[in-house]
């Protein structure tokens, strides 16, 4: 688990996990970029919890993953990619975005 909390910073995290089941990231008053393109989902579904407060977070995920967002917003925004086909693996996003932005981009 590479869950990290570092307020007032901007940094990039690469999650490399051959048995990816769940993880998360939190950012306050800064920016966090998270790459999940080297993670391999164990089973059919994995979860990722985000907590964004007065900040921005960008998640880069493999193009062959399906995405389910259960993230709540309070004066924040979520930008999800258009998905044309169902992937063989599913990433479920949970958590919250308050006064910030979460963007998910396919690689």
Describe it:
This protein has 107 residues and is mainly beta. Helix content is 0%, strand content 55%. The chain has no helices and ten strands. The chain has a five-stranded parallel β-sheet, with no helix packed on it. Strands 2, 4, 6, 7 and 9 form a five-stranded parallel β-sheet that branches. The protein is globular, with a radius of gyration of 13 Å.
What is the structure about, briefly put?
The protein has 107 residues and is mainly β. 0% of the residues lie in helices and 55% in strands.
- Secondary-structure element order, N to C: EEEEEEEEEE
Q: Briefly note the structural class of the backbone.
A: mainly beta
DSSP helical segment count: 0
Helix content: under 10%
Calculate the terminal CA-CA distance, rounded to whole Å.
22 Å
Question: Quick check: average pLDDT?
Answer: 91
Tell me the strand percentage band: over 45%
The tally of beta strands, per DSSP, is 10
Low-confidence stretches: none
Order of strands in the sheet with most strands: 1-3-5-10-8
The backbone outline, from C-alpha atoms, is globular
**Main sheet, how many strands, which sense, barrel?**
5 strands, parallel
Oligomerization category of the chains in this entry: single chain
Please outline the helices and strands:
Layout: E1 10-14, E2 22-28, E3 31-35, E4 45-53, E5 56-61, E6 65-69, E7 72-74, E8 77-79, E9 89-98, E10 101-106
Parallel strand pairs: 1-3, 2-4, 3-5, 4-9, 5-10, 6-9, 7-9, 8-10
């Amino acid at each position: 688990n590479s869950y990290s909390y570092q307020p007032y910073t901007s940094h990039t995290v690469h999650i490399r996990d051959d048995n990816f089941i769940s993880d998360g990231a939190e950012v306050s008053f800064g920016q966090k970029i998270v790459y999940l393109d080297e993670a391999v989902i164990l089973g059919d579904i994995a979860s990722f919890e985000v907590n964004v407060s007065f900040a921005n977070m960008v998640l880069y995920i493999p193009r062959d993953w399906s995405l389910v967002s259960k993230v709540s917003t309070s004066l924040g925004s979520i930008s999800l990619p258009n998905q044309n086909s169902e992937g063989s693996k599913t990433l479920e996003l949970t958590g919250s975005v308050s006064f910030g932005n979460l963007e998910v981009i396919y690689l």
